[in-house]
Amino acid sequence: MKTIRLIICLLAGLFQIISFSAKAESFPLTVYIGEHGAYTQVEFILDVVTSEGAYHGEYYQDGKALLVRPVPNRVWTGPGNVPAPTLEVTGGSHNANDSDCPGINALSGGWGCDSLPVKFTISGEATGCPWLVTVRVISHSSTMSPETYTGPQTPVSTCPAQSLTPYDISWDQNYVVKNKVIRLQSTGGMIEKTLPTFLMKDGKLCDGGQASDEGAYCRFVTQMLTFSSSGCDNGKVTVTPNRHPITDKEVHDMVVHVDTTERQPIDSTCRFTYVLNMF
Fold first, then answer.
1. Domain identity same for 75 and 167
2. Do residue 193 and residue 254 come from a single domain?
3. How many other CB atoms are found less than 10 A from the CB of residue 250?
4. Residue 222 and residue 199: Cα distance in Å, rounded?
5. Are residues 167 and 99 in the same domain?
6. Is 121 exposed, middle or buried (0-12, 13-18, 19+ CB in 10 A)?
7. 249 DSSP assignment
8. Residues near 204 by Cβ (< 8 Å), separated by ≥ 6?
9. Which domain holds residue 224?
10. Does residue 113 sit in the same domain as residue 207?
11. Cα(259)–Cα(124) distance, integer angstroms
12. Which UniProt keywords are listed (predicted)?
């Protein structure tokens, strides 16, 4: 694990690869889901990263009750003619610690964290590196005012772990920049500015859009990272982080909004934390 912190200092005022063989290969794993009663509706999101590109699958059962049986594939996208893996719930859910479901306590009462055993199967043998599969579950409450919880990613790969030392996150795609100062001219209204972030390796852009082993490792690392925001220390400044697909060279677009209606100088610092993870 490697933690990276980025900072925006804002001044606004009155100035200017998977290969396949004949056999199938299955991977059992445990996922963590948000639970809000027996009829919580769940959707499984499966993302696959290979040297060929990125694949995305969505799976959910008909009806409201989660049953111990295969989960139909509803969406499968990606390059080539790679078939969608099959996904199966292999057992009942069990109570888990809330710490296994980050952010679940921010929802209204009635939510709990459960562990759930599942299995996905590819129609071939996973060979060649890098490849990575991540599974996460989106839960929807069946209450009058529905809420949604997205559980943590569970990664699966038989490839060797990669050193995270060469990797970094930057405000600039040409070299590593972790602190950024922006100056905006007051308009008397709302100002918006978009600032992208980038994954870097050895001080150079790590582009997940490349159809190569290097690009695959960029997708691999990007898929595994986690992100959090500490917000801004001035209420007139907010930042909305928009995540890019892992095949883009950008990681996030940080959309900065500044309220200059009072035409007073504004000085604000916004902080963000990236954690690069490896299993």
1. no
2. yes
3. 18
4. 7
5. no
6. middle
7. S
8. none
9. 2-17+162-276
10. no
11. 55
12. Signal
Residue 19 has what DSSP assignment?
B
pLDDT in tens, 200-210: 999 999 998 88
Query: Residues 56-111: pLDDT tens digits?
Result: 999 998 877 788 999 999 999 988 888 899 999 999 999 999 999 998 998 888 89
Distance CA 52, CA 135 (A): 19
Sheet bearing 266-276, strands edge to edge: 179-185, 2-13, 266-276, 226-232
Q: CB within 8 A of 262, min separation 6: which ones?
A: 236
- Distances, alpha carbon 35 to alpha carbons 40, 97, 148, 149, 164, in Å: 6, 12, 10, 9, 34
pTM of the model: 0.76
Six token digits for residue 36: 């809000």
Same domain, 132 and 168: no
Neighbouring residues of 220: CB distance < 8 A, sequence distance ≥ 6: 49, 130, 132, 162
Co-location of 29 and 144 in the same domain? yes
Return all residues near 241 (Cβ < 8 A) that are at least 6 apart: 227, 229, 252, 253, 254, 255, 272
